[in-house]
Amino acid sequence: MKLLIMGGTTFVSKFTASYFLKKGHSVTVLNRGCREQVAGVTHLQADRLQLGNVLNGKVFDAVLDITAYTAEHVTALLDSDVTFGDYIFISSSAVYPETNPQPFSEDQPCGRNAVWGDYGTNKLAAEQVLQERCPHAYILRPPYFYGLFENLYREAFAFDCAMQGRPFYLPGDGDMKLQFFHVADLCRFIEILLAKHPTDRIFNVGNPATVTVKEWVALCYEMAGKAPAFVKVDKQKHIPQRDYFCFHDYEYVLDVSKQCVLMPDTLPLTDGLREEFVWYRENPDSVYFRKPYMAYIDAHLA
After folding, report:
1. DSSP letters of the chain?
2. CATH architecture for segment(s) 2-146+182-204
3. What is the pTM of this model?
4. 201-252 tens-digit pLDDT
5. What is the CATH T-level fold of the domain 155-180+207-251+267-301, as seen in this structure?
Protein backbone atom coordinates (compact mmCIF):
# COMPACT_ATOMS: atom_id res chain seq x y z
CA MET A 1 0.00 0.00 0.00
CA LYS A 2 0.95 3.63 -0.40
CA LEU A 3 0.67 5.23 3.03
CA LEU A 4 0.92 8.85 4.15
CA ILE A 5 1.92 9.17 7.80
CA MET A 6 1.52 12.56 9.38
CA GLY A 7 4.62 12.89 11.55
CA GLY A 8 7.17 10.12 11.36
CA THR A 9 10.00 11.32 13.59
CA THR A 10 8.71 11.01 17.18
CA PHE A 11 7.50 8.03 19.22
CA VAL A 12 4.15 6.76 17.88
CA SER A 13 4.46 8.17 14.36
CA LYS A 14 8.12 7.12 14.10
CA PHE A 15 7.31 3.58 15.19
CA THR A 16 4.37 3.48 12.79
CA ALA A 17 6.55 4.56 9.86
CA SER A 18 9.17 1.96 10.74
CA TYR A 19 6.57 -0.78 11.25
CA PHE A 20 4.85 -0.35 7.89
CA LEU A 21 8.14 0.00 6.04
CA LYS A 22 9.23 -3.36 7.44
CA LYS A 23 5.94 -4.82 6.21
CA GLY A 24 6.86 -3.81 2.66
CA HIS A 25 4.58 -0.82 2.21
CA SER A 26 5.51 2.45 0.51
CA VAL A 27 5.65 5.01 3.34
CA THR A 28 5.61 8.77 2.90
CA VAL A 29 5.96 10.96 5.98
CA LEU A 30 5.03 14.62 6.28
CA ASN A 31 6.81 16.66 8.92
CA ARG A 32 8.91 19.78 9.37
CA GLY A 33 12.20 17.95 9.03
CA CYS A 34 13.46 18.98 12.47
CA ARG A 35 14.61 15.46 13.37
CA GLU A 36 16.21 12.50 11.65
CA GLN A 37 13.89 10.59 9.32
CA VAL A 38 13.33 6.84 9.40
CA ALA A 39 15.58 5.29 6.75
CA GLY A 40 13.59 4.30 3.69
CA VAL A 41 10.66 6.69 3.91
CA THR A 42 9.79 9.36 1.37
CA HIS A 43 9.94 12.68 3.20
CA LEU A 44 7.65 15.60 2.45
CA GLN A 45 8.90 18.62 4.39
CA ALA A 46 6.21 21.03 5.55
CA ASP A 47 4.35 22.36 8.55
CA ARG A 48 0.94 20.72 8.43
CA LEU A 49 -0.74 24.11 8.87
CA GLN A 50 1.24 25.53 5.94
CA LEU A 51 1.17 22.76 3.37
CA GLY A 52 1.49 24.91 0.28
CA ASN A 53 1.54 22.59 -2.73
CA VAL A 54 3.53 19.79 -1.11
CA LEU A 55 0.59 17.35 -1.41
CA ASN A 56 -0.72 18.55 -4.76
CA GLY A 57 -1.59 15.59 -6.95
CA LYS A 58 -0.40 13.01 -4.42
CA VAL A 59 -2.44 9.79 -4.13
CA PHE A 60 -2.36 7.39 -1.18
CA ASP A 61 -4.23 4.28 -0.19
CA ALA A 62 -4.46 5.54 3.37
CA VAL A 63 -3.62 8.48 5.61
CA LEU A 64 -2.44 7.57 9.11
CA ASP A 65 -2.86 10.79 11.04
CA ILE A 66 -0.79 10.53 14.20
CA THR A 67 -0.07 14.23 14.80
CA ALA A 68 -3.40 16.06 14.50
CA TYR A 69 -4.13 17.79 17.79
CA THR A 70 -6.67 20.40 16.64
CA ALA A 71 -9.49 20.83 14.15
CA GLU A 72 -7.20 23.13 12.16
CA HIS A 73 -4.71 20.32 11.68
CA VAL A 74 -7.36 18.09 10.12
CA THR A 75 -8.90 20.87 8.06
CA ALA A 76 -5.55 21.86 6.54
CA LEU A 77 -4.94 18.32 5.37
CA LEU A 78 -8.42 17.82 3.98
CA ASP A 79 -8.20 21.17 2.16
CA SER A 80 -4.98 20.15 0.43
CA ASP A 81 -4.95 18.62 -3.03
CA VAL A 82 -4.35 15.09 -1.76
CA THR A 83 -6.32 11.99 -2.73
CA PHE A 84 -6.64 9.07 -0.32
CA GLY A 85 -8.70 5.99 0.38
CA ASP A 86 -8.82 5.38 4.12
CA TYR A 87 -8.17 7.92 6.86
CA ILE A 88 -7.21 6.70 10.35
CA PHE A 89 -6.95 9.33 13.07
CA ILE A 90 -5.26 8.68 16.40
CA SER A 91 -7.38 10.61 18.87
CA SER A 92 -7.33 10.15 22.66
CA SER A 93 -9.25 8.82 25.62
CA ALA A 94 -9.09 12.43 26.88
CA VAL A 95 -12.28 13.15 24.88
CA TYR A 96 -14.31 11.41 27.62
CA PRO A 97 -15.29 13.62 30.58
CA GLU A 98 -13.90 12.26 33.84
CA THR A 99 -17.48 12.28 35.18
CA ASN A 100 -18.63 9.60 32.72
CA PRO A 101 -19.31 6.14 34.16
CA GLN A 102 -16.42 3.75 33.70
CA PRO A 103 -15.26 1.91 31.78
CA PHE A 104 -15.60 4.55 29.07
CA SER A 105 -17.32 3.18 25.96
CA GLU A 106 -17.49 4.57 22.45
CA ASP A 107 -21.20 5.35 22.67
CA GLN A 108 -20.82 7.65 25.69
CA PRO A 109 -21.07 11.42 25.25
CA CYS A 110 -17.78 13.24 24.83
CA GLY A 111 -16.79 16.61 26.22
CA ARG A 112 -14.29 18.48 28.34
CA ASN A 113 -12.17 16.45 30.72
CA ALA A 114 -10.98 18.55 33.67
CA VAL A 115 -7.73 16.58 33.96
CA TRP A 116 -6.66 16.86 30.33
CA GLY A 117 -8.15 20.29 29.64
CA ASP A 118 -7.59 21.77 26.18
CA TYR A 119 -5.74 18.70 24.94
CA GLY A 120 -8.93 16.65 25.15
CA THR A 121 -11.27 19.34 23.81
CA ASN A 122 -8.93 20.00 20.88
CA LYS A 123 -8.77 16.29 20.05
CA LEU A 124 -12.56 16.15 20.18
CA ALA A 125 -12.84 19.14 17.85
CA ALA A 126 -10.48 17.36 15.45
CA GLU A 127 -12.69 14.26 15.60
CA GLN A 128 -15.80 16.30 14.87
CA VAL A 129 -14.45 18.08 11.81
CA LEU A 130 -13.10 14.78 10.48
CA GLN A 131 -16.48 13.08 10.92
CA GLU A 132 -18.20 15.96 9.12
CA ARG A 133 -15.77 16.13 6.22
CA CYS A 134 -14.74 12.47 5.97
CA PRO A 135 -17.46 10.25 7.46
CA HIS A 136 -15.72 7.03 6.38
CA ALA A 137 -12.66 7.84 8.54
CA TYR A 138 -11.67 5.66 11.48
CA ILE A 139 -11.04 7.24 14.91
CA LEU A 140 -8.98 5.45 17.55
CA ARG A 141 -9.03 6.48 21.22
CA PRO A 142 -6.06 5.05 23.13
CA PRO A 143 -5.02 5.19 26.80
CA TYR A 144 -1.26 5.49 27.56
CA PHE A 145 1.03 4.38 24.74
CA TYR A 146 4.32 2.67 25.49
CA GLY A 147 7.04 0.92 23.52
CA LEU A 148 10.04 1.64 21.33
CA PHE A 149 10.91 5.28 20.59
CA GLU A 150 9.04 6.50 23.70
CA ASN A 151 10.08 10.13 24.15
CA LEU A 152 8.18 10.96 27.35
CA TYR A 153 9.75 10.43 30.76
CA ARG A 154 7.45 7.69 31.99
CA GLU A 155 8.87 4.16 31.76
CA ALA A 156 12.29 5.78 31.47
CA PHE A 157 11.80 7.45 34.85
CA ALA A 158 11.08 4.13 36.54
CA PHE A 159 13.95 2.50 34.65
CA ASP A 160 16.33 5.24 35.80
CA CYS A 161 15.23 4.87 39.42
CA ALA A 162 15.84 1.13 39.16
CA MET A 163 19.25 1.41 37.50
CA GLN A 164 20.37 4.02 40.04
CA GLY A 165 19.19 1.90 42.95
CA ARG A 166 16.78 4.55 44.17
CA PRO A 167 13.69 3.89 46.28
CA PHE A 168 10.47 4.67 44.46
CA TYR A 169 8.15 7.33 45.87
CA LEU A 170 4.69 5.92 45.38
CA PRO A 171 1.47 7.97 45.31
CA GLY A 172 -0.50 6.67 48.28
CA ASP A 173 -0.84 2.91 48.33
CA GLY A 174 -0.07 2.67 44.61
CA ASP A 175 -3.46 1.16 43.84
CA MET A 176 -4.38 3.65 41.09
CA LYS A 177 -5.02 1.69 37.89
CA LEU A 178 -3.30 2.41 34.57
CA GLN A 179 -4.20 1.13 31.12
CA PHE A 180 -1.58 0.82 28.38
CA PHE A 181 -1.37 0.07 24.67
CA HIS A 182 1.82 -0.96 22.90
CA VAL A 183 2.62 0.91 19.70
CA ALA A 184 3.04 -2.41 17.87
CA ASP A 185 -0.51 -3.37 18.81
CA LEU A 186 -1.70 -0.02 17.47
CA CYS A 187 -0.08 -0.81 14.13
CA ARG A 188 -1.53 -4.32 14.13
CA PHE A 189 -4.99 -2.89 14.69
CA ILE A 190 -4.49 -0.35 11.89
CA GLU A 191 -3.61 -3.25 9.59
CA ILE A 192 -6.86 -4.98 10.56
CA LEU A 193 -8.90 -1.86 9.82
CA LEU A 194 -7.27 -1.45 6.42
CA ALA A 195 -7.85 -5.11 5.57
CA LYS A 196 -11.35 -5.69 6.97
CA HIS A 197 -12.98 -2.24 6.85
CA PRO A 198 -15.41 -2.80 9.73
CA THR A 199 -18.59 -0.77 9.76
CA ASP A 200 -17.85 0.72 13.20
CA ARG A 201 -15.85 3.92 12.81
CA ILE A 202 -14.78 4.73 16.38
CA PHE A 203 -12.76 2.34 18.53
CA ASN A 204 -11.34 2.51 22.00
CA VAL A 205 -8.01 0.73 21.84
CA GLY A 206 -5.84 -0.60 24.66
CA ASN A 207 -4.91 -3.63 26.71
CA PRO A 208 -8.03 -5.28 28.13
CA ALA A 209 -6.29 -5.65 31.50
CA THR A 210 -5.24 -2.75 33.69
CA VAL A 211 -2.29 -2.63 36.07
CA THR A 212 -1.88 -0.74 39.34
CA VAL A 213 0.82 1.89 39.68
CA LYS A 214 2.63 -0.31 42.18
CA GLU A 215 2.53 -3.31 39.85
CA TRP A 216 3.75 -1.18 36.93
CA VAL A 217 6.72 0.17 38.91
CA ALA A 218 7.63 -3.34 40.08
CA LEU A 219 7.63 -4.55 36.47
CA CYS A 220 9.83 -1.65 35.36
CA TYR A 221 12.32 -2.46 38.15
CA GLU A 222 12.18 -6.15 37.23
CA MET A 223 13.35 -5.29 33.71
CA ALA A 224 16.52 -3.84 35.28
CA GLY A 225 16.94 -6.87 37.51
CA LYS A 226 15.89 -4.97 40.63
CA ALA A 227 13.08 -4.95 43.18
CA PRO A 228 11.76 -1.55 44.30
CA ALA A 229 11.81 -0.25 47.85
CA PHE A 230 8.64 1.81 48.03
CA VAL A 231 8.21 5.03 49.96
CA LYS A 232 4.57 6.01 50.40
CA VAL A 233 3.71 9.63 49.68
CA ASP A 234 0.67 10.50 51.80
CA LYS A 235 -2.03 11.90 49.52
CA GLN A 236 -3.57 13.68 52.49
CA LYS A 237 -0.63 16.07 52.44
CA HIS A 238 -1.75 17.30 49.01
CA ILE A 239 1.70 17.11 47.45
CA PRO A 240 1.22 17.62 43.68
CA GLN A 241 1.57 14.14 42.22
CA ARG A 242 2.99 15.37 38.92
CA ASP A 243 5.93 16.95 40.77
CA TYR A 244 7.34 13.57 41.74
CA PHE A 245 5.51 11.00 39.61
CA CYS A 246 5.03 10.55 35.89
CA PHE A 247 1.24 10.12 35.71
CA HIS A 248 -1.63 12.36 36.73
CA ASP A 249 -3.68 11.52 39.81
CA TYR A 250 -6.43 10.25 37.56
CA GLU A 251 -7.68 6.71 37.14
CA TYR A 252 -9.75 5.66 34.16
CA VAL A 253 -10.45 2.51 32.17
CA LEU A 254 -11.52 2.13 28.55
CA ASP A 255 -13.93 -0.55 27.36
CA VAL A 256 -12.01 -2.15 24.50
CA SER A 257 -14.44 -4.97 23.75
CA LYS A 258 -15.01 -3.74 20.17
CA GLN A 259 -11.28 -3.83 19.56
CA CYS A 260 -11.03 -7.32 21.02
CA VAL A 261 -13.59 -8.68 18.56
CA LEU A 262 -11.21 -7.77 15.74
CA MET A 263 -7.91 -8.27 17.63
CA PRO A 264 -8.37 -10.62 20.61
CA ASP A 265 -4.76 -10.57 21.79
CA THR A 266 -2.42 -7.75 22.83
CA LEU A 267 1.26 -7.84 23.73
CA PRO A 268 1.78 -8.80 27.39
CA LEU A 269 2.95 -5.79 29.38
CA THR A 270 5.99 -7.68 30.65
CA ASP A 271 7.17 -8.39 27.10
CA GLY A 272 6.62 -4.82 25.97
CA LEU A 273 8.43 -3.33 28.95
CA ARG A 274 11.36 -5.72 28.52
CA GLU A 275 11.76 -4.63 24.90
CA GLU A 276 11.46 -0.96 25.83
CA PHE A 277 14.03 -1.28 28.62
CA VAL A 278 16.62 -2.79 26.28
CA TRP A 279 15.98 -0.05 23.75
CA TYR A 280 16.13 2.73 26.36
CA ARG A 281 19.37 1.45 27.84
CA GLU A 282 20.91 1.73 24.36
CA ASN A 283 19.19 5.03 23.45
CA PRO A 284 18.91 7.12 26.65
CA ASP A 285 19.09 10.43 24.80
CA SER A 286 15.95 9.63 22.81
CA VAL A 287 13.82 10.49 25.85
CA TYR A 288 14.10 14.26 25.65
CA PHE A 289 11.02 15.39 27.58
CA ARG A 290 12.63 14.74 30.95
CA LYS A 291 10.92 16.22 33.98
CA PRO A 292 12.86 16.87 37.21
CA TYR A 293 11.08 14.28 39.34
CA MET A 294 14.26 13.13 41.06
CA ALA A 295 15.34 16.68 41.90
CA TYR A 296 11.94 17.36 43.45
CA ILE A 297 12.06 14.14 45.45
CA ASP A 298 15.56 14.85 46.71
CA ALA A 299 14.67 18.41 47.67
CA HIS A 300 11.23 17.90 49.17
CA LEU A 301 10.51 14.23 49.94
CA ALA A 302 13.73 12.37 50.67
Report:
1. -EEEEE--SSHHHHHHHHHHHHTT-EEEEEE-S-SPPPTTPEEEE-BTTB-TTTTTTEEEEEEEE-S--SHHHHHHHHTSSEEEEEEEEE--GGGS-TTS-SSB-TTS-----TTTTHHHHHHHHHHHHHHHH-TT-EEEE-SEEESTT--BSSHHHHHHHHHTT--EEEETTS--EE-EEEHHHHHHHHHHHHHH--S--EEE-S-SS-EEHHHHHHHHHHHTT----EEEE-GGG---HHHHSSS-S----B--HHHHHH------HHHHHHHHHHHHHH-GGG--B---HHHHIIIII-
2. 3-Layer(aba) Sandwich (3.40)
3. 0.97
4. 999 999 999 999 999 999 999 999 999 999 999 988 889 999 999 999 999 9
5. UDP-galactose 4-epimerase; domain 1 (3.90.25)
